[in-house]
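so ive been stuck on this for like two days lol. basically i have the seq below and the ligand is flavin-adenine dinucleotide, smiles is in there too. i just want the complex predicted, nothing fancy, no docking runs or whatever. if the output looks off dont worry ill sanity check it later, just need somthing to start from for the group meeting slides
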Amino acid sequence: MKSHVRVAVIGGGVVGCSVLYHLTKLGWKDVVLLERAELTAGSTWHAAGGMHTLNGDPNVAKLQKYTIELYKEIEAISGQSCGLHMPGGLMLAGTKDRMDWLKMAVARGDYLGMDAQLISVEEAAKLLPLIDKSQFVGAMWDPLDGYVDPSGVTNAYAKSATLAGAEIYRHTRVEDLTQNPDGSWNVVTTGGTIVAEHVINAGGLWAREVGRMVGLELPILAMEHQYLITEDMPSLVGMPELPHTIDFEGEIYLRQERQSVLLGTYEHNGTPWSAKTTPWDFPAELLPPNLDRIAGNLEVGFKHFPALENVGIRRIINGPFTFAPDGNPLVGPVRGLKNFWVACGVMAGFSQGGGVGLALANWLINGDPGFDIWAMDVARYGDWATRPYTNAKVRENYGRRFRVSFPNEELPAGRPLRTSPLYDRQKQAGAVFGAAWGLEYPLWYAPRGTEAVEQVSFRRSNAHAPIGTECAAVRHAVGMIETSGYAKYAVFGPQAEAFLSRMLTNRMPEPGRIVLAPMLNPNGKLIGDFTVARVSSDRFHVFGTGGAEDYHLRWWQAHLPDGGVSLRSLRSGLVGLSIAGPKSRDLLARISGEDVSNAAFPFMHYRRMDLGMIPARVGRLTFTGDLGYEIWVTPDYHVALYELLVNHGADFGLAHVGTRAMNALRLEKSWGTWAREYRPIYGPYEAALGRFVSLKKPDFIGRDAALRERDAGPTLKLITLAVDAAEADALGDEPVRLDGKAVGWVTSGGYAHHVGRSVAMAYVPAGLATPDAAFSVDILGERRAARVVDAPLFDPNGLRMRG
Ligand SMILES: Cc1cc2nc3c(=O)[nH]c(=O)nc-3n(C[C@H](O)[C@H](O)[C@H](O)COP(=O)(O)OP(=O)(O)OC[C@H]3O[C@@H](n4cnc5c(N)ncnc54)[C@H](O)[C@@H]3O)c2cc1C
């Protein structure tokens, strides 16, 4: 065994072997893999091996496509067969909602270069004669779909990696990890200790235990999963192979296995496995089958596939595999743990393992995953994602694996967890809540006398009219919006300005002032978008996206100088309410007793104020495009502030406003948001943020690349489209077409109530983004005419917010 290596990968499942292979593929040869038993001895060996490109997140879908296309490559290098079967995939829809969902999936696939298409039930029945046609309304066909041999794939990765120089130590369990002062790790194994510059936790079923070796509680839970294999079916002899099929309403997947059918299901009340600790001596054995648990699903299955009802069952497989709360993998470097990486929680190893390996190897070697992998980034969870929270969410997610997810749907498990001090009052006011980063926040308010419940739909819901009323309150009077969910950071010390100036693209403000400042990676791509307020010469408050707190802290902490700067997340220690609308100034004047005229308290200023008896910091800006203020207090004053605003606000027409209305208001201003318009695949000039990039500053991360982008001109351009929509609006990820061809994609959309237009923001090739250009946007399978709007639909010159 080697004594020193560059990378030690822990875990020889399909994911660890893929990571190992990709490290060697990208040129790092001094890498080893440690496996406690034989390769595949975790979840991998008993997987059904199914794979497909379909994923709710198009960026993950792209990586799934990469994975499937990789199998030929590793077969060729290793000479090891992956047992690749590509009979194509059939997704069966039993309801209109599911058909809507499939229409959206096909449209998304079109701009990702996928070949999926909608087909009729008749056509589906020709491909899969087992079905009862009366149970279905349509289907999707995807030729890039099939299954592999799990052991073949894992060994093909492993052999390809070892041929390139990697070493694999089987029957070598990692028992402990301790860190050296230089950041390298002592990897203590049953076969001796290796010093590794980097450690990658690909421990699959034991990833939690490996995490605990370094004090990390990863949000992962294993669930028992069952599939069965039927006796041989004579009707399959001599027939073309059955497609790999998902029956969404039956919540069943099936495929052909030689002359029989393999059928698996995700039951509603799934059973967690080893909820707290995975035993190290768990052998590569199956769990006892429990047909009763899936009897309900099987009954539906026999109705949908009558040909199966009278076929005997040859074998039942029950095995555990791991999930993160949202079902996507956990990938990347872990904040606060130098040189410690994870590649775990991969529930679809044969669709995603290749993409995970590539992204992680890119990240390690080049400092960037090379793709937009936000949906898989381990930093999307913080310490609020505790083991019990994870347990609740994973069980919910498992039971909903094949359910239709509606864009306006908020799932109940694990909630409420974090609440602001205003939660009960907002509830009384009719709030319908969403949750982000574990925190409850009002989405919209149900009018008095109506139930505070949203009907889930792909179309405009019962929330549409109340949101319109909230928008009107902001544009005509004053709205009050909770802002506690923003990430808030205090950055202070003699080097605070220099540090922020290096991290962010804009010049830092003078004391008492605010600037907007994007953040770039060295490739000049957007990795953040912040509001920076300067409290005093050496103290800043920085506001950003709540859900990206760990993502941003990870980046900043990795770049902190040795001294001179302190960086602290204020998370729940600072809470807020913003007031916005033409009457907001009068309200602020009333509760502060101060001169808050435009001259005395101009736009983009930040100051300490006493509001009633409450000490607060107030910034003159909001995300509504209207005159307005963001008010920040410590949580002990939050209720008092709320009461103060509500009591005095009544005279000015104050209304409770949720984030859905704020979204509608920012759309009519053509303002983007993090994770939609601003992501690490766009440059600042593409995203129309060039005015916040100060190239006069000699040094900030990404400056050279930003300069190149500016000089060469952006490749893409963010545009706003006015869409000729009917009862459904664009939401995000719909293709934008020119003469029928997908040329771009929507990043977000919705109904802009004040201007009365359906709006979509989208990226298209810069050359096509001409004023008034005509495109179409796919909404629920229909191509809707859409025209570029040259200036924000509301207050294009920004007079309202500045006035
Ligand atoms: C019944 C069933 C059906 C499935 N069907 C499909 C399917 O159709 N399609 C699909 O894509 N996925 C399927 N899966 C899921 C798939 O199996 C997983 O996505 C995949 O196996 C995860 O691989 P992994 O490498 O992350 O984890 P694992 O396979 O669990 O591998 C982790 C490895 O790490 C080793 N290890 C852990 N800790 C240590 C340590 N301290 N020291 C040394 N070694 C260690 C373990 O021994 C193990 O070999 C199925 C799973 C099951 C159970």
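Residues 228 and 316 are 4 Å apart (CA to CA). The mean pLDDT is 96.
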